[in-house]
């Protein structure tokens, strides 16, 4: 397949093609022109001129056939063609159509070479054209000079126009190539952003499902055990446990419904809690029908935890209810997960939850005073999602989360987030 030659600093060679296709095209053109001229000179012999013989055919071939290499070596093609034309004239053959061979070779030089090389080619071609014109009986010196100059100027102008046009085409092709590369990079970047968004969304939904299911199922499981244990001996306590199971189940279904709305892409679910610095955002409430979980809902959460056997207290300091909904949801989920871990791993104990907003930061602390009970090892890949989710929520807002045993016994979870 033919291709454009590289662009030189001087803007030359932009018009030329290279490759088997281009060479075959020029070779075919040279052969056709050679055949046409030789047939014409053989059929229409001019009186007073030497008829075309073997030497004439040889000189004619050397005039036209070098045009096959006019793209690869235009100066060489012009040199061979003009020398052969000069020898052709010296042998007494009629100039006529044969003079167009050097003209076409010069056009190739003008279309491929800078002005200095083109000027040298013009002197060479002009000299032989002038000699040919002077050999015509009815041509005077003025007519011969005018003819040589006019033909060469026209060829020079046409070659220059061809060079400029091809240069612009080359620039356009290069611009299109760069545009295609930029489009490909943009497409790849969009794909990468899409994949990252999908990953963030998957992690967000995973956190929400874990926080919802882990806490509520833990409460339901414990209350079901209490109800079964005191069903015959203490019906009132059993009834309280069953009511707690019913309330917790309804709340679980309500929160799961929000997640399912998000998965279905419901227009009713608006990501109203997404902070500027958190690309993934947080889940929002479904219009007025659903409440946004935040600091105000910590009191009911503490009550459920107390029913599960943990003596929990809540202390709220500062204007925490004025925080953005997304930040309040993060605080709620961290407290929820921390208390769930207290229920599962510490059992009946005392826990203190402190939510404080002061000195340009929001701090959330959940501490219990009982040592952790031994936890049975879990299969590889299970467990640990709660802590991971809490740390991810903290990072979304540029905060930190630490978890560590307390020197006096028990365990503490501390969240610190810069105040927006």
UniProtKB/TrEMBL annotation:
InterPro entries (alphabetical): DUF7134, HATPase_C_sf, HATPase_dom, Sensor_HK_TwoCompSys, Sig_transdc_His_kin_sub3_dim/P
Positions of transmembrane segments: 20-44, 79-107, 119-138, 144-162
Entry-linked CDD domains: HATPase_UhpB-NarQ-NarX-like
Signal peptide: none
A Pfam family the protein falls into: HATPase_c
Segments forming a coiled coil: 162-192
Sequence ranges assigned to domain Histidine kinase/HSP90-like ATPase in this UniProt record: 329-419
Top enzyme category: transferase
Location of the Signal transduction histidine kinase subgroup 3 dimerisation and phosphoacceptor domain: 201-266
Protein's UniProt name: histidine kinase
